[in-house]
Amino acid sequence: MAGGGGAWKVAYADFVTAMMALFLVLWLVSQDTSVREAVERAFRSQFVSTGTGTSTLKLETNTVTIDSIGQSKNSDSPFEATVMSRMIDQLQALNTPTEGESQPVKLNITPEGLEIEVFDRAKRPLFVGNTEKLTIYGRWVFSTLAWPIAENRDAHIEIAGHTPTGYASNRPQYTSWELSADRSKMVRRVLEKYGVKDSQISRVTGYGDSQPLLGTKPSDDENRRVAVLIRLPSALDAATGNSP
């Protein structure tokens, strides 16, 4: 059949492609909810920028000098640079600021570890109003944050909730202390749902409005935040005096 024998190849290729898609769908529907949500976020997240520009997480390295993240480190740093670099790369998706607002995430490299401050911005809130309930965006942020923590099983974390002054509640004796503590507990539950082990969590705290950020007024919205401190083994050893 000269000149007309190639049509069956096209049809066969379409058939194989369709079967592969079917197998992928069957595999996906057989997975638990956390796997399906992770796949959905990977392919269709409304929060990750799809533009051609790039953005980087803001790093504060005043306390510990990092010569070149991912390549070398200061001898006093408690972090292995390669681990820290990988964590930062994995967290890039969180750094998608909206117009008119500052970046939603800030990383602080300290002697205690890698501190990740996640801000509850007005245009992209983490929580629903003055409650501990996470928004869809807030749940996405902390489920994404869970991945690099869960990947490093030797890492331990501390979660701290903060609020600005001026919080008013219609619940009796429910102050900013209770709100910040409940928000920390909610973050802990989400992190554990997405892979972080209970044994990795060493502290869950609510500080209310008692610890405003340096350079801000206690009433500034910048103080509406959740801080997650990640300690790697070397940082834990230094903190407990067990370093060799």
Please, could you describe this protein's structure?
The structure is a single chain. The chain has 244 residues and is α/β, with parallel strands linked by helices. It folds into 2 domains: 1-30; 33-240, 2-Layer Sandwich (60s Ribosomal Protein L30, Chain: A). 35% of the residues lie in helices and 15% in strands. The protein has helices spanning 7-29, 33-43, 81-90, 136-151, 176-193, 233-240, and strands at residues 58-60, 105-110, 113-119, 156-162, 201-206, 225-231. A 6-stranded mixed sheet has the order 1-2-3-6-4-5. The radius of gyration is 22 Å and the shape is elongated.
- The Cα radius of gyration reads 22 Å
> Main sheet, how many strands, which sense, barrel?
6 strands, mixed
Structural shape: elongated
Helix and strand composition category: alpha/beta
- Beta strands, count: 6
Task: Provide the CATH superfamily of the largest domain.
Answer: OmpA-like domain
Helicity range: 25-40%
Q: Which stretches of 5+ consecutive residues score pLDDT under 50? A: 44-56, 61-79
The span between the termini is: 78 Å
CATH class of the largest domain: Alpha Beta
For the record, the count of structural domains works out to 2
SSE ordering:
HHEHEEHEHEEH
Q: What fold name stands as the CATH topology of the largest domain? A: 60s Ribosomal Protein L30, Chain: A
CATH architecture of the largest domain: 2-Layer Sandwich
Percentage of residues in strands: 5-15%
- Spatially, the strands of the biggest sheet line up as 1-2-3-6-4-5
Instruction: Kindly report the average pLDDT value.
Output: 76
